[in-house]
UniProtKB/TrEMBL annotation:
Keyword Acyltransferase applies: no
CDD domains linked: crotonase-like
Recorded family membership: Belongs to the enoyl-CoA hydratase/isomerase family.
Species name: Amycolatopsis pithecellobii
Single GO biological process annotation from the record: fatty acid beta-oxidation
Taxonomic path: Bacteria, Bacillati, Actinomycetota, Actinomycetes, Pseudonocardiales
EC number: 4.2.1.17
Protein name, as recorded: Enoyl-CoA hydratase
Record keyword S-adenosyl-L-methionine present: no
Superkingdom to which the source organism belongs: Bacteria
Entry keyword set: Lyase
GO molecular function, one term: enoyl-CoA hydratase activity
């Protein structure tokens, strides 16, 4: 039976809230859901009125990871190579607008990875977070072996990956796996949206896009290269309209009116 939208999209002011929508399966991931999610991200990137995106899950979970019903036969399948994907799995990392996870409940396996592909994570205090891979006989998939040590440190990453133990939102905050815990669980999306709204109201979309690119590139380079990257972008920032508006709005004691995110240029490389 055909399912309805696998990803719901709702505008809240300048923020687009995307909701993974397979609540009877704890929003378990499959290719169709991924395609819808990426399509909604593309639309959000192209729509200048969307200034930030919040990702959450329908029902009581964020995302239980790959749909285990789909994986049932996997041990019997003989792949020569992994099937090609239309886009890299880590596509959300390339989105140029702030992308915030509102972890409303369990995030496991690929569901946790998707939260890590977001720029920051808001969580309920009791959300269950688990890498889950080792318990399923799987390896550290989709770049989590790269992302997780950078967030929590090597031995904590190994703890979480080797044991697959469940970490609650509160502990996750202490180790840097999430960035905010929202005590009133029902408000986790609201608070993520409020944060996103604050970015939208105060910060230049162009500057935020460049900063995201800088941070991701810097994680893979040495210090001198990161400074050279900043120098390359600084000239563009001095020449662009946003610095004029940023300075004028401060001097005139008024909120800024930055233009929407312009299309990609070679500066985004
Ligand atoms: C290529 C592979 C990539 C991967 O992502 S591998 C990792 C796959 N994921 C997992 O192994 C996680 C499996 N799920 C769990 O361990 C637990 O769930 C949680 C820790 C995430 C949450 O625990 P709790 O809060 O106690 O919920 P609950 O009662 O276990 O689950 C509620 C309903 O959600 C369904 N569900 C959860 N995860 C998945 C999934 N990944 N695929 C399909 N269904 C899932 C359950 O079965 C159940 O459903 P019902 O209420 O009908 O019994």
């Amino acid at each position: 039976m055909a399912e309805g939208p696998l990803v719901l999209a709702e505008r809240r002011g300048a923020v687009l809230v995307l909701t993974l929508n397979r609540p009877d399966r704890m929003n378990a991931w499959n290719d169709a859901l991924e395609e819808e999610y990426y399509a909604r991200l593309d639309e959000a990137e192209a729509d200048a009125s969307v200034r930030a995106i919040v990702l959450t899950g329908a029902g009581r979970g964020f995302c239980g990871g790959a749909d285990l019903a789909d994986l049932e036969a996997v041990g019997e399948t003989e792949f020569d190579e992994l099937p090609p994907r239309p886009r890299p799995r880590w596509y959300p990392l390339t989105v140029r607008k702030p992308l915030i996870a509102a972890i409303n409940g369990a995030a496991a396996g690929l569901g946790l990875v998707e939260a890590l592909y977001c720029d920051l994570r808001f969580s309920t205090p009791d959300a269950k977070l688990t890498t889950a891979f080792a318990k399923r006989g799987l390896i550290a998939e989709y770049g989590i072996a790269w992302l997780l040590p950078r967030l929590v440190g090597t031995s904590r990453a190994l703890d979480l990956l080797l044991s697959s133990r469940v970490v609650l939102g509160r502990e996750a905050l202490g180790i840097g796996l999430v960035d905010r815990v929202v005590e009133e669980a029902g408000r986790v999306v609201d608070e993520a949206v409020e944060y996103a709204e604050a970015l939208a109201a105060a910060c230049s979309p162009w500057a935020m896009a460049q900063i995201k690119g800088q941070v991701h590139r810097a994680l893979e380079t040495d210090f001198a290269t990161a400074v050279a990257d900043a120098d390359r972008l600084m000239l563009a920032s001095f020449r662009g309209p946003d610095v004029k508006e940023g300075v004028a709005s401060y001097l005139e004691r008024r909120p800024p009116a930055f233009p929407g995110l312009p299309p990609r240029t070679e500066l985004d490389a």
